[in-house]
Amino acid sequence: MENRIPAVxxxxxxxxxxxxAANSHVNMEVYRGExxxxxxxxxxxxxxxxxxxxxxxxxxxxQIFIDGNPVTIASPRDAFNLGIGMVHQHFKLIDVxxxxxxxxxxxxxxxxxxxxxxxxxxxxxxYGFEVDPTQKIYDMSVSQKQTVEIVKVLYxxxxxxxxxxxxxxxxxxxxxxxxxxxxxxREDNKAxxxxxxxxxxxxSLSDRVAVxxxxxxxxxxxxxxxxxxxxTNMMVGRKVSLxxxxxxxxxxxxxxxxxxVTVRNEEGILKLEDVSFTARSGEILGIxxxxxxxxKELLEAIxxxxxxxxxxxxxxxxxxxxxxxxxKDPRSIRDMGVSLSFVxxxxxxxxxxxxxxxxxxxxxxxxxxxxxxxxxxxxxxELAKNVVEELEVVTPGISTPVRRLSGxxxxxxxxxxxIASAPKVLLTAYAVRGLDINSSYTIYDLINKQKQAGVxxxxxxxxxxxxxxxxxxxxxxxxxxxxGIVDGRNADRAKIGLMMTNIGGGNNE
Amino acid sequence: MSNxxxxxxxxxxxxxxxxxxxxxxxxxIGAIAAALILCAIITMIFTGENPFxxxxxxxxxxxxxxxxxxxxxxxxxxxxxxxxxxxxAFKMRFWNIGGEGQVLIGGLAAATCMLKLGDxxxxxxxxxxxxxxxxxxxxxxxxxPAIFKAKWNTNETLSTLMMNYIATQLVAFFTVLWEVPKxxxxxxxxxxxxxxxxLPNLFGSGFSGSKYxxxxxxxxxxxxxxxxxxxxxxxxxxxxxVGESVNTARYVGINVEKVIIRTVFxxxxxxxxxxxxxxxxxxxxxxxxxxxxxGFTAVMVSWLAKFNPFIMILASLLIVFLSRGAGxxxxxxxxxxxxxxxxxxxxxxxxxxxxxFISYKISFRRGGHKK
Lengths: 509, 371
Fold this sequence. Notes:
The structure holds 2 protein chains of 2 kinds. By secondary structure, chain A is of the alpha/beta class. Chain A has helices at residues 46-53, 76-81, 99-104, 113-127, 142-155, 172-187, 199-205, 228-236, 295-303, 330-335, 358-366, 378-390, 407-420, 437-452, 464-470, 493-501; strands at residues 8-17, 20-30, 34-40, 61-66, 69-71, 84-87, 160-164, 191-195, 208-213, 216-222, 254-264, 270-280, 284-288, 310-316, 322-324, 340-343, 425-429, 456-460, 473-478, 481-487.
């Protein structure tokens, strides 16, 4: 393999953003007929590196070779012309157009949707995609949208395929399907680069792994010769233990009682239907489900951010007295002495202010305290310093706007702030989305500490393996309804996967 | 894989990651210098006049005499006050471009009090009533679009803009209704004999600037006050959060509707105060053009200063200097007024244009491969 000409060869690539070196002197090769897993912690420069390959950024230094020829990739069009296609973490599709229209969008030449549709069908048959070219994007599930993105890239003749965390939004079944497609592409002699944080995916899919750390290329190895532990150590630069603890719940008491909750979103679409469950103190209740199954609405309903059509949500004190939460706004829920700490799904869109610095973001929770008309800037500053120290947030300083931080560090800031308010109930959604393995474990530890402190934790997660390792009980949602509640200690992966798509886990719709 | 053409990008534009204050200042000074040089060249080519003579005339127009200097500072104060008024709304991403109308309505309220109460209440009380009426009128005028924005998310740019025309028409109506003398279509100087409702001259008539001082003092106080309000108060913090992310604001329990209405009221109230200063303090009359487009110019001042009250002082000084200087040039050299407008335009173009070089970096690539 080493004697062949690499499909992509990066030589001495560097990219700086202001004072931050996103990549420094990276040398890397990708070969045809292999799947390369690109690993690294958050902010290690994986996405930046791949963005340079796909023409979004331009390297400050270094040279890219495609099939042995030096090339300049100044725009995504150049990348396409060289046969490089990237599927981004955030889809770049136009909702009101069909799959076929999205795929041909931006291509030169005469627009012939019919011919395009035929070619799309051909590609789909070849690799086993299930896409209807005439379907509108807004009618599609997340996994279908992703398929459209991949077909789009193949349609443009991509020989080198880059996928940035493609499985973050997929169910286990969908992930398996995607992997089958990728394996077929490998057989078709394409070069595939996949960025992922999930170790079992790396092990089951990739041929080779390459590791970046702090913008530098650390090395590569054949997947079959290594293991999750070794890869993680390489990423982090020191030994990391990869076990999620699951302490036994201590003296669990009913804390939040949700009964018969029905929620419609702003468009009047039913998002939750007759949802009932109880969350207990000192226990982690995991919530599983495919994206859009109502997890977000459920947490928002409890936090007072989502109007509830029917049903009740009660907060139960230690002495058994219950208080209804529905109808109260977030502020009055807090004023009642009920502390709900909510880590919203979209960290920067809701929960943090991107243009404000760390201290000012800490203030979001506490700025109203005290009778003075002026804000207290000292306490939030101290809190920010503590969070940075305790959670090892990588930041140039307390007065750096949070949007400059990488995803993992942003999440640490948010979780740190929420936990600092000593909540009784901690609601988290996708607390580790996009986080590297090391940061993820830091967050799991934090959540476990809260659990041991008697906090009732409701944890919406997307990695089923983590949910099964962390949760005491797992509530499975399917299309806004409770598909079932299973015990986390002897949960079956396949069964939960089925429950996510069918009520009760049966095969018949 | 057909197209293997290899093209180096000639220019490469990337966003800067923040720039030191000193470097940004050098770029801004460089832009002004470049603008002045270009203006000089254009002046020489088209008029044959000595460009330094033109600049000298501009400076003389703004600062040529004690009286001119005082008027310049008074004009700066008015423009600065309107810019300060707009700033809290802008920080909240509420594009209040209705400053013009809010000033007019404030002025109308003041004029109404002067005309209707001038001979009925003692002067001190009249001025207090005028103050309350103007501030309230401006506030209410701005709150109407704010309520629509808060409750139904209507576009405030359109509604605040349209409120300007309503205000102009209202003022036009009342100037005709109360015209003095009949048929003139003008109100004329209000209470010229009694001076009722005229804002006081500070430090008596012995002091050369006493006529202009009140406006300037208001500007100083509100500049400092607005800076403190935005940077250190809880309400200022709420404004920033709502401006950055409405979702985050809701999530932490900020009452977004309340913040919008309150902030825009403050914005309109300060505009109303400007109306009072213009009618009761400076002009002692009311016309439809009393705001003179400054409600719009102030939008530029606020933006040029990146919403920083202290930098707004410089921005308004620059704009007032240019417009007063341009007027002087037109009369002194017998040039068309448009020529001075051209010079003003060139200078503003450079000042605004240089912001691009502060936010973005342009790197030129040399041909051939790098190592």
